[in-house]
Amino acid sequence: MYRILTQCRACSGSIRQVVSLGHTPLANSLMATRGEAMSLPKFPLNLCVCEQCSFVQLDVAIDSKVLFEHYVYVTPNARSLQLHYDSLIAALLAYPFKKKPLTEMNTVEMGSNNGAFLRVLRPHVKRVVGIEPAKNIAAMATADGVSTIPEFFTEQSVSDLRGKTGPVDLFVARHCMAHLDDLRGTLRAIAAMLSDDGIVVIENAYLKATLDGGQFDQIYHEHMSYFALRSLSRLMRSCGLHVQHAHIAPVHGGSIVVIASKVGGPVSCEHDSVWSDEEQIVDDLQQFAFMTRATVGGLRAALDGFIGDGATIYTYGATAKGNTLLNATGLTWREVKYAVDSTPLKQGRFLPGSGIQVVSEDIVSDRAPTAFLLTAWNYAEEILAKQEPYRKSGGRFIMPLPTPRLLR
Ligand code: JHZ
Ligand code: ZN
What residue owns the CA closest to ligand 1's atom 35? Predict the structure, then answer.
């Protein structure tokens, strides 16, 4: 069900630990009862770096079937995501190195979830197909009109998949490269899906943003790898994919977007500026480990003080990130009464390790807490705007990172 790594998953060099978050249950294992949620198996959660190639990764790989075959994360309908989709499409339209117009591109997205991005992209391209391993979510996407193949995307399944989709002109992989133990096999499979002129867009949480922002909660078992441009482009090149464009997008606390092709060639100027920003990344890891320990301890002490003064606290968002944060600080249902979340699949369930029950956001109007711990901090702006009446009536939000603070 899982394997422990002693060697780098990119180059087989030896890896060393940067920071440990102890043993935690899987972040998206939301359970039907509190008892089940609190007695889940726990796995080591250690951030490591390769001494040879500086690739940042976990030293554990959980079986992808356990992680993803049935999934509770459904891409939310958030304004910041819609804006991001628009800017991603604008970047593709402006991308100077493509060999044919977007409107002629046969497009496939892996890990397409409920089809949220493909639905927005569809009018700009020739055809869209999703590939999504979570059977329950793939069925939702297909029922909503985005044709989605309910399968894992692997090197073994690539010839069968290419038979179904035809040669791909635009291959999209958003926030799923981090989820893969077999990185090289998957990248080779992407190259095999592409037509000769095809391009691939990869988007993932950006390592430098994670480190600079003290975002230790981005570390959970689904996130096996943590990408910088240097490490990602080296890995892609070894699998026949050449990065020609890179930029940093604001979503999910800072995400790297790269565009690559099989032929390679010139790179965009944004690519060069991202590249030069990464000079110090190995030093940044040490600072991050220091900051993580301080934030975990500081947050727990601040919340204990607040609760001791009579405050009631819920989390805002039943996020994967939030479960790392709750388990690292040791907070449970005894301290945090509920987690509010807009995802119907999560509501009524209990968070792994902490046993906190997930309820709908509607609870805010009749049973509001003193403060919300903002575990969906990547949507801070829109959540704060949505909860303006709560805030006007004295309700507060606690921003956990990089140092805990009360938002007014
Ligand atoms: P959000 C997931 O991480 C898991 P999580 C995964 N491994 C990954 O890589 C990233 O996504 C990309 C809710 N919400 O996006 C909806 C509200 O309740 O931060 C979501 O459950 N009200 C695939 O889980 C959660 O918050 C709102 O107004 O850390 C946000 O989850 C909004 C906007 C969201 O991802
Ligand atoms: Zn390595």
Answer: 319
* Residue 67 CA to ligand 1 centre (angstroms): 16
To test the pocket of ligand 1, the residue of 73, 175, 177, 327 to mutate (highest count of ligand atoms within 8 Å of its CB) is 73
Q: Is the dihedral of CA 318, 149, 163, 172 positive or negative?
A: negative
Ligand 1 contacts (CB < 6 A) are 73, 76, 78, 175, 222, 252, 317-321, 341-343, 346, 361, 376, 378-379, 382-383, 386
pLDDT at 366: 87
pLDDT lower than 70: segments of the chain: none
Give the pLDDT of residue 358: 98
pLDDT of residue 408: 76
pTM score of the predicted model:
0.97
Q: What is the pLDDT of residues 66-111, one digit of tens each?
A: 999 999 999 999 999 999 999 999 999 999 999 999 999 999 999 9
Question: What's the confidence (pLDDT) of residue 183?
Answer: 96
Q: Any idea which ligand is nearest the CA of 340? A: 1
